[in-house]
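Changelog entry: the Ion transport domain-containing protein record was regenerated in this release. Current contents:
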Amino acid sequence: MFWEIMRTLIRIVMIFLYLMLAFGLAFHALMLNQREFESVPLSVVQTFVMMVGELNYQNNFLDTYLKNELPFGVLTYVIFVIFVLLMPILLVNLMIGLAVGDIAEVQRNAALKRIGMQIELHTCLEDKLPYWFMKRVDKPSITVYPNRYCSRVRKRNR
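Regenerated structure tokens:
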């Protein structure tokens, strides 16, 4: 179960790596004068930290906008709003939804896996029983009659 959910998580992370790289490059191009975004690797790391939830809005966006240090202030805010809507909110909701879907699928398959394990257990137990016992108990076919009782216990008529 853990590995199936982990496989789904890795697929999601591969998609979000492209988005994180795109937003990191956009923030790098728009905010070159800030220390957090002055190089591409730092910009991608800062974007990852922002994706996790540490947006640092006051220092990165508001102060620089009010001091007119952003060359493209409106465009930076548009990219930032798109980032906030896509990355933290969408990522968390998507991961929760896919994990719940994986758990439901695992529960559906669990019944079949349990039956398969029971069949293996019975097969192993039959191999351990003596031949004379299996010859006596094991029947090649069973005939069921509709009006006869299947057990030795008689049904009492009242």
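The two ends are 53 Å apart (CA to CA).
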